[in-house]
Amino acid sequence: LQKLIHLLQATDDPLIQEQALITLSNSAAFSVNQDIIRNLDGLSIIGGMLSDCVPKVKEKALNALNNLSMSIKNQEEIQVYIMQVCRNIESAPLNSDLQLAGLRLLTNMSVTSHYHHKMINSIPCFLHLLSEGTERTQIQVFKVLVNLSANPAMTRHLLKAQV
Protein backbone atom coordinates (compact mmCIF):
# COMPACT_ATOMS: atom_id res chain seq x y z
CA LEU A 1 0.00 0.00 0.00
CA GLN A 2 2.82 2.37 0.83
CA LYS A 3 4.46 1.72 -2.54
CA LEU A 4 1.18 2.35 -4.36
CA ILE A 5 0.69 5.65 -2.56
CA HIS A 6 4.26 6.69 -3.37
CA LEU A 7 3.70 5.65 -6.97
CA LEU A 8 0.67 7.93 -7.17
CA GLN A 9 2.81 10.83 -6.00
CA ALA A 10 5.77 10.01 -8.24
CA THR A 11 4.12 9.57 -11.63
CA ASP A 12 2.22 11.77 -14.03
CA ASP A 13 1.27 8.82 -16.24
CA PRO A 14 -2.55 8.57 -16.16
CA LEU A 15 -2.53 4.84 -16.95
CA ILE A 16 -0.26 4.07 -14.00
CA GLN A 17 -2.31 6.39 -11.78
CA GLU A 18 -5.52 4.62 -12.80
CA GLN A 19 -4.09 1.18 -12.03
CA ALA A 20 -2.70 2.30 -8.66
CA LEU A 21 -6.06 3.86 -7.75
CA ILE A 22 -7.94 0.70 -8.78
CA THR A 23 -5.64 -1.41 -6.60
CA LEU A 24 -6.01 0.98 -3.65
CA SER A 25 -9.77 0.96 -4.16
CA ASN A 26 -9.87 -2.83 -4.10
CA SER A 27 -7.60 -2.91 -1.05
CA ALA A 28 -9.98 -0.59 0.78
CA ALA A 29 -12.53 -3.42 0.91
CA PHE A 30 -10.72 -4.53 4.07
CA SER A 31 -11.05 -2.29 7.13
CA VAL A 32 -7.46 -2.86 8.23
CA ASN A 33 -6.30 -1.50 4.86
CA GLN A 34 -8.55 1.53 5.25
CA ASP A 35 -6.69 2.43 8.43
CA ILE A 36 -3.29 1.80 6.83
CA ILE A 37 -4.11 3.98 3.81
CA ARG A 38 -5.31 6.78 6.13
CA ASN A 39 -2.20 6.52 8.32
CA LEU A 40 0.04 6.72 5.23
CA ASP A 41 -1.66 10.02 4.26
CA GLY A 42 -3.26 8.18 1.36
CA LEU A 43 -6.59 9.99 1.67
CA SER A 44 -5.08 13.39 0.91
CA ILE A 45 -2.98 11.97 -1.92
CA ILE A 46 -6.01 10.27 -3.48
CA GLY A 47 -8.11 13.38 -2.81
CA GLY A 48 -5.52 15.43 -4.65
CA MET A 49 -6.22 13.34 -7.74
CA LEU A 50 -9.72 14.87 -7.89
CA SER A 51 -8.23 17.97 -9.47
CA ASP A 52 -6.51 15.94 -12.20
CA CYS A 53 -7.49 16.93 -15.72
CA VAL A 54 -7.90 13.30 -16.86
CA PRO A 55 -11.53 12.20 -16.23
CA LYS A 56 -10.62 8.51 -15.78
CA VAL A 57 -8.10 9.39 -13.05
CA LYS A 58 -10.75 11.49 -11.25
CA GLU A 59 -13.24 8.64 -11.57
CA LYS A 60 -10.82 6.07 -10.12
CA ALA A 61 -9.93 8.48 -7.29
CA LEU A 62 -13.65 8.90 -6.50
CA ASN A 63 -14.11 5.13 -6.50
CA ALA A 64 -11.18 4.71 -4.10
CA LEU A 65 -12.49 7.44 -1.78
CA ASN A 66 -15.93 5.84 -1.95
CA ASN A 67 -14.55 2.53 -0.68
CA LEU A 68 -12.44 4.31 1.91
CA SER A 69 -15.46 6.30 3.14
CA MET A 70 -16.86 3.26 4.93
CA SER A 71 -14.81 4.30 7.97
CA ILE A 72 -15.98 7.18 10.16
CA LYS A 73 -12.37 8.26 10.71
CA ASN A 74 -11.83 8.32 6.96
CA GLN A 75 -15.03 10.31 6.42
CA GLU A 76 -13.65 13.00 8.72
CA GLU A 77 -10.74 13.45 6.30
CA ILE A 78 -12.68 12.88 3.07
CA GLN A 79 -15.30 15.52 3.96
CA VAL A 80 -12.89 18.29 2.91
CA TYR A 81 -13.37 17.12 -0.71
CA ILE A 82 -17.18 17.15 -0.74
CA MET A 83 -17.56 20.52 -2.46
CA GLN A 84 -14.94 19.56 -5.05
CA VAL A 85 -16.81 16.28 -5.65
CA CYS A 86 -20.00 18.30 -6.15
CA ARG A 87 -18.21 20.51 -8.70
CA ASN A 88 -16.92 17.41 -10.49
CA ILE A 89 -20.46 16.03 -10.65
CA GLU A 90 -21.79 19.31 -12.05
CA SER A 91 -19.09 19.64 -14.69
CA ALA A 92 -18.95 15.97 -15.73
CA PRO A 93 -20.76 14.80 -18.85
CA LEU A 94 -24.34 13.76 -18.11
CA ASN A 95 -24.62 10.10 -17.06
CA SER A 96 -20.85 9.59 -17.23
CA ASP A 97 -18.97 7.12 -15.05
CA LEU A 98 -17.27 10.12 -13.45
CA GLN A 99 -20.62 11.62 -12.48
CA LEU A 100 -21.86 8.31 -11.09
CA ALA A 101 -18.67 7.78 -9.08
CA GLY A 102 -19.10 11.20 -7.48
CA LEU A 103 -22.74 10.51 -6.66
CA ARG A 104 -21.82 7.17 -5.05
CA LEU A 105 -19.27 8.90 -2.83
CA LEU A 106 -21.82 11.55 -1.84
CA THR A 107 -24.28 8.79 -1.00
CA ASN A 108 -21.85 7.35 1.54
CA MET A 109 -20.87 10.76 2.86
CA SER A 110 -24.53 11.74 3.35
CA VAL A 111 -25.58 8.70 5.39
CA THR A 112 -25.09 10.80 8.51
CA SER A 113 -26.07 14.46 8.62
CA HIS A 114 -22.55 15.65 9.55
CA TYR A 115 -21.69 16.89 6.05
CA HIS A 116 -25.08 17.73 4.53
CA HIS A 117 -24.39 21.47 4.72
CA LYS A 118 -21.54 21.02 2.23
CA MET A 119 -23.99 19.72 -0.40
CA ILE A 120 -26.62 22.48 -0.17
CA ASN A 121 -25.39 24.43 -3.20
CA SER A 122 -25.56 21.29 -5.36
CA ILE A 123 -29.22 20.51 -4.68
CA PRO A 124 -30.36 22.25 -7.92
CA CYS A 125 -27.82 20.14 -9.83
CA PHE A 126 -29.13 16.96 -8.17
CA LEU A 127 -32.69 17.86 -9.16
CA HIS A 128 -31.55 18.59 -12.73
CA LEU A 129 -29.86 15.17 -12.88
CA LEU A 130 -33.03 13.63 -11.56
CA SER A 131 -35.02 15.02 -14.48
CA GLU A 132 -32.40 14.66 -17.24
CA GLY A 133 -30.34 11.63 -16.23
CA THR A 134 -30.68 8.01 -17.18
CA GLU A 135 -32.15 5.51 -14.75
CA ARG A 136 -28.68 4.72 -13.31
CA THR A 137 -28.03 8.40 -12.64
CA GLN A 138 -31.51 8.93 -11.21
CA ILE A 139 -31.07 6.04 -8.76
CA GLN A 140 -27.78 7.49 -7.48
CA VAL A 141 -29.31 10.97 -7.15
CA PHE A 142 -32.31 9.55 -5.29
CA LYS A 143 -29.98 7.92 -2.78
CA VAL A 144 -28.28 11.23 -2.05
CA LEU A 145 -31.59 13.10 -1.86
CA VAL A 146 -33.13 10.48 0.45
CA ASN A 147 -30.17 10.83 2.79
CA LEU A 148 -30.43 14.63 2.71
CA SER A 149 -34.20 14.53 3.27
CA ALA A 150 -33.74 12.51 6.47
CA ASN A 151 -32.21 15.63 8.02
CA PRO A 152 -34.89 18.14 9.12
CA ALA A 153 -32.35 20.97 8.74
CA MET A 154 -32.26 20.26 5.00
CA THR A 155 -36.02 20.51 4.41
CA ARG A 156 -36.01 24.22 3.63
CA HIS A 157 -33.06 23.88 1.24
CA LEU A 158 -34.65 20.96 -0.59
CA LEU A 159 -38.02 22.64 -0.98
CA LYS A 160 -36.75 26.04 -2.10
CA ALA A 161 -34.22 24.74 -4.62
CA GLN A 162 -34.52 26.24 -8.10
CA VAL A 163 -34.19 23.84 -10.99
Automatic annotation (TrEMBL):
The keyword Transmembrane appears for this protein: yes
Subcellular location(s) per record: Mitochondrion outer membrane
Transmembrane segments: none
Gene Ontology CC: mitochondrial outer membrane
Main location: mitochondrion
Highest taxon listed in the record's lineage: Eukaryota
Domain Armadillo repeat-containing as annotated: residue spans: 1-163
Keyword Mitochondrion: yes
Protein name: ARM10 protein
Organism: Podargus strigoides
